[in-house]
Design brief:
The chain is of the alpha+beta class and 276 residues long. Helices cover 28% and strands 23% of the residues. The chain contains ten helices and eleven strands. The longest helix is centred in the C-terminal third of the chain and has 14 residues. The radius of gyration is 20 Å and the shape is globular. The termini are far apart. It is found in: Cytoplasm, Cytoskeleton, Cilium axoneme.
Length: 276
């Protein structure tokens, strides 16, 4: 049987609610990630089988048309297919179909969020180069936190948790939210933009049909060239495949090379607030 080779078309007219809703855009600006990450959609006409996912990704990132589109989206991250030595993929689970996944954060006994939705402050600390000034970031980043175990490794690997963490940590000049709702609302919108859901006719439950892969492109020098500095937690490249529609979403974030990873956000504002 002849081996499948995938061909791609860019769906430039695809509208992401994340990028077209003014309230969401305002939050992205506030969190210093507007223009720092890329969302784009491509379609393919060839039949897809689960065992083809590596072939699909290899074809995608070695396609001259695709690379030209990606380079147009963010010229400062330019690369050629000739630069590629190997494309590594890692399955990212995306099984969560309800925002109740985050209910454990909201429980008052965990002392992360007050009953009115306000995020509790904590003593300032730094983890992985990020300022921790509240209990939410502490739960996200500090493995010694009492609340870190609210989400075990399998939970933290879920795409929806990765999105949530990405929004909370933000970019270089990220301004913290006082309340939890904006983080949850934008997480929900972005997640819905990326995954395809269907109701199981037998169980009547909502199921995620998309397949998410974390991608690392290695150069001839055996270093990550896409994303650059792939070890940093805010540098990532996800491809979310929708087999039924023959589409894939490209979700990419890479901090600038000269970025100072110690993010000091609204520092004076935090120190002027009462730690509860």
């Amino acid at each position: 049987m002849e081996e499948v080779k995938y061909h791609f078309t860019h769906l430039s007219s695809k509208n992401f609610n994340t990028l077209n809703s003014k309230p969401v855009i305002d939050y992205l600006i506030k969190w210093s990630i507007k223009g720092q990450f890329q969302l784009s959609t491509f379609c393919f006409n060839e039949p897809y089988q689960p065992h083809d996912k590596q072939k699909l990704i290899d074809n995608f990132f070695r396609d001259s048309f695709v690379i030209n589109i990606l380079n147009e989206l963010k010229p400062s991250w330019f690369f050629h297919k000739e630069d590629i030595d190997h494309v590594y993929t890692e399955i990212v689970p995306c099984t969560i179909s309800s925002m109740t996944f985050f209910d454990r954060i909201l429980k008052e006994e965990n002392k992360i969020i007050r009953i009115d939705g306000v995020i509790r402050n904590c003593l300032d600390d730094y983890k992985n180069g990020f300022l921790i000034a509240d209990e939410l970031r502490k739960m996200i980043l500090d493995e010694e936190s009492d609340n870190y175990s609210l989400y075990l490794e399998n939970d933290r690997n879920e795409l929806i948790f990765r999105i949530f963490k990405f929004l909370i940590l933000g970019g270089q000049w990220c301004q913290f939210e006082d309340k939890i709702n904006p983080y949850l609302d934008v997480t929900k919108i972005l997640y819905k933009d990326l995954v395809h859901v269907e109701k199981n006719p037998e169980t009547k439950k909502i199921e995620i049909k998309s397949i998410c892969l974390k991608v690392t492109i290695m150069g001839k020098n055996k270093k990550s060239i896409f994303p650059i500095d792939g070890d940093h937690i805010q540098n990532f490249l996800y491809v979310i495949i929708d087999p039924k529609k023959g589409r894939l979403h490209y979700f990419y974030m890479n901090m600038e090379d000269n970025f100072n990873y110690i993010i000091i956000n609204d520092f004076q504002h935090r120190h002027n607030r009462l730690i509860m």
